[in-house]
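Section 5.1 Outputs to date
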Amino acid sequence: MAHTAAPGFPVPSGIPLIVAVRGLAKALFAAFVFFACFAFSETSPYDAVAIPTILLWLCLGVRLHRGAVPLLALLLLYLAAIVTALFPYLNEDFPVTWTVQLIYLVVTCIFFAMFFSDDTHARMELALKAYTASCVFSAALGIVGYLQWLGIEDLFYKYDRASGTFQDPNVFGSFLTLGALYLMHGLLIGTARRPLASLAGLLIIVAGIFLSFSRGSWGGSVVAVLLMVGSVYAGSNSARLRRRIVLLTLATVVLGTIAVIALLSIDHVHQMFETRAALTQDYDQGETGRFGNQIRGLAMLLERPFGMGPMHWRLVFGLEPHNSYLGSFANGGWLGGAVFIGLVLTTGFVGFRLLVRPSPFRAHAQIVWPALLMFFLQAFQIDIEKWRHVYMMLGMVWALEAARLRAPPPRAAEESASDRGLGARHQGNVIAPGSRLA
């Protein structure tokens, strides 16, 4: 029975405890994902929220399904290789700290794989909305900082490049890609509830990616968008939806081009673009440059089955390897490098299969897998093994695979119904009642 605190304002006599706890758990998870954009330092609000969020959801019940078991096995084998290579250097603080942080990130990845495997549509939507809000927030700060509208030196930009809430403009630019894909996907297939707001958010994110002046982010984002658009187009049998995809893609390209041209009209933006658009930079060239170090380091690693030890590449060359594949061999030896490559190849097989096979989860795979593929490609020219959001996307892809394996085969009626109208998913992307992309 409801009590009355004031005339006309009934107060419920109580809320079931489990409902309140689940509401808290969802709020914590949304904050967990949103805080991924705060990367000013080695620790961030993301890490402060991670432990209570994971523990609470473990108490509420998350399970490891068989579809995600290969991910668990590969990650544990990779950690085993890293820890084995660490043994000779247990007296050194930095390698030990780095390894502990890596173990923590692997734990978050396994949690994400477990979390998204159940109630997949609703949980993926919650995460992607929170992540996209994080992207818009960080991109807006990056733009404001780059244009120096706040008048505060080096706030939200580094090295004359937008960095948002990140230490490194390269990480900032790449972080934004998943948010851009989510908004663009909703606009393409007509499921965005507020198209103008989605378009505005997309333009802010695109401007942030551009002002990061990260060549890897530029190229990776283009590849991710092309793969996402191509998979949506190929996965639909609706001529009307395909026309919409083509027209909106062209419109987005035109608007993005106009925004870039407008930014290039600013002198220091134009100068930085000319500098960063070069294929190589000064620090890439020469025997002691990035590429020279990689060639010399590769020859050394061929003679070291246990690698150089975690984070010892920088002690030898004075720089990070700027190549996660090479870094995996340096940090974890031949076993660590082989497992890392195996993880990338296996995830690639799973990701492309999610795009090709009709399932209730293909729509979300079209957003998440292209973004993760971008990071795998960027790993050839930057170190991604400590990027928190990469582990989230890795867990997402394997969770989608676990959910796909447990889902019943789509019925022909469902497949045909999913192509009706612009507000429906294209064929093979069956929507659970009440779920939709924003």
